[in-house]
Amino acid sequence: MIFFDIDTQIDFMKAEGALYVPEAETIHGRIASLLAAAGEAGVTTISTRCAHEPGDPEFDLFPPHCLEGTPGAERLFAELPGLPRCEVAVSAIAEPGTSLQEATHYVVKKKVFDLFANEWLDGLRRDGYFQEKECIVFGVATDYCVRACVLGLVEAGARVRVVGDAICGVSPTTTSETLAVWQKAGVEMTTTAEILRGIEEATR
Ligand SMILES: [Zn+2]
Fold first, then answer.
1. 111 class by beta-carbon count within 10 Å (0-12 exposed, 13-18 middle, 19+ buried)
2. What is the pTM of this model?
3. Which residue, 117, 142, 148, 178, has fewest beta-carbon neighbours within 10 Å?
4. What is the number of domains present in the chain?
5. Which residues lie at CB < 5 A from ion ligand 1?
6. What separation in Å is there between the alpha carbon of 53 and the centre of ligand 1?
7. Residues 143, 4, 40, 71: is their CA dihedral positive or negative?
């Protein structure tokens, strides 16, 4: 099982953030529970994070956000999941045959909302690493980064489950359209409670 913790950075997650996702604070508690459980049970977790510089092309689409070195770019729960951490740079590359370590926290930087723009992550995907893997996805924003993550993993043949009460979208219209696209793609929706129960049962 791999957790995908998408862009849970202060600029998206807090009302004073530069690109606040409306109502994102309603999922803070569930994000923290999922990450804490990953730490306790040793679930390998991939946290993606925007790491921008002034003038990045993405700022033609979205207001400037997550500028490297500013507090807004920090992950909201910076200390979680508390597993050995591996930072993956924007320009990192995955050699064929690369695999993820067990019980490790990968923090993957990106400059585009699609996380598979990161060559390291895309390399793993193209290499078939995620095929048949159970991938649990949560974070923000449902209609942009989470959407790209889910569809990218489906394309890679992963068994994707989205934690429906631990995601948050920018606009109601594009969010419901995204949910419809996922349903069509056979994506399973789950809840925080269900994931936590599963972890507890597996580790008992
Ligand atoms: Zn960004």
1. middle
2. 0.97
3. 117
4. 1
5. 50, 58
6. 10
7. negative
